[in-house]
Amino acid sequence: MKKKPLWIVLFSYLLILLCIPAVVLLPQAKKEGASQEMNQPAIEQQNTEKPEDAAITVAVFRVSKQQVEQMELEKYVEGVVASEMPASFEEEALKAQALAARTYITRMMTSGGVSGLEMPADITDTVAHQVYKSDDELKIIWGKDYEWQKKKIKEAVAATKGEILTYEGKPITASFFSTSNGWTENAKDYWEEDVPYLKSVPSEWDEKTSPGFLAEVTIPVNEFEEKLGINLQEGEMGTVTARTPGNRIKTVSIAGETFSGREIREKLQLRSTDFHWKQKGNAVVIQTKGYGHGVGMSQYGANGMAKEGKKYDEILAHYFKGVKIESVEPFISAVIAQR
């Protein structure tokens, strides 16, 4: 057989050497490309997902249904604001209420929710905590006014989304009530617990703006005696022995017994602890000033401040001393982590 020229043999050998790396590396290159394609979405998800993006739901125990309903946090706040404050109130007052509601539920959630229920829940939908109504319930309550009222509430909540009140880095007990007697009450004088941000402050707007500033109730003498567990002597109406800094009844002595203003209010189901009474025939006529426990933010006071041009942060700073407006995110992240 005729031998090939040397230069052809050398050229063929060199060509084989050049092609071998390409043949070996091509499958590896294809494998790496597939890996990047598969992992890319996971990398993007890891980089873009934030704690606040994770849905946080509130477990609300609906007392009338005796069941727990899960709902998104801001949706829950809308239902509370709609239930606890008239939609006709000023926008800044509604914003202040939204922060109070969001702060209250955040504190409940971070402290483990409601105890003593047959099923786990963060909060109930009654005045024991804060009232909540669903959209379907609000449609029945508001009727033809549902659309504009819901829109106004929703806008106020959205304008304060994620904002809560804190004191020394913790969500506060953001208590609120309807109408003051001209002052709010120290927490210590009503709940017997000294809370630094729940101090008595003037609230002069209530008398001008609240239709329920003054009220009167008549109770038969025998019912009055039964509820208080006393026996009245003819014409005996007792003596106020001490008042609180908020000008409410601290203690009263009647028929040889001493009661706190809160005891009288609860036993007789009065509107407030600022009251006085007189006997009229076989009945006791009781006049009250203000409506509610008096601790924290007065809702009619907040609306009066808003009418004067005060912003929601100014309203909250007046009723809750030394607090800050901060993001709910760190607290929600902690709840999500625990769950």
Total individual domains: 2
Mean pLDDT: 86
Low-confidence stretches: 6-54
Overall geometry: globular
* Largest sheet composition: 3 strands, mixed
Report on the structure:
The chain is α+β, with helices and mostly antiparallel strands and 339 residues long. The protein folds into two domains: 56-192 and 294-338, no CATH class; 214-289, no CATH class. The chain is 44% helix and 19% strand. The strands form five sheets. Strands 2-1-3 form a three-stranded mixed sheet. A hairpin with a 2-residue loop joins β9 and β10 (257-260). Residues 6-54 have low confidence and may be disordered. Residues 66-167 form the Sporulation stage II protein D amidase enhancer LytB N-terminal domain. One of its GO terms (cellular component) is outer membrane-bounded periplasmic space. Pfam families: SpoIID (PF08486).
Structural descriptors:
single chain; 339 residues; 3-stranded mixed sheet; 44% helix; globular; Sporulation stage II protein D amidase enhancer LytB N-terminal domain-containing protein; membrane; transmembrane helix; transmembrane; Bact_Sporulation_Assoc
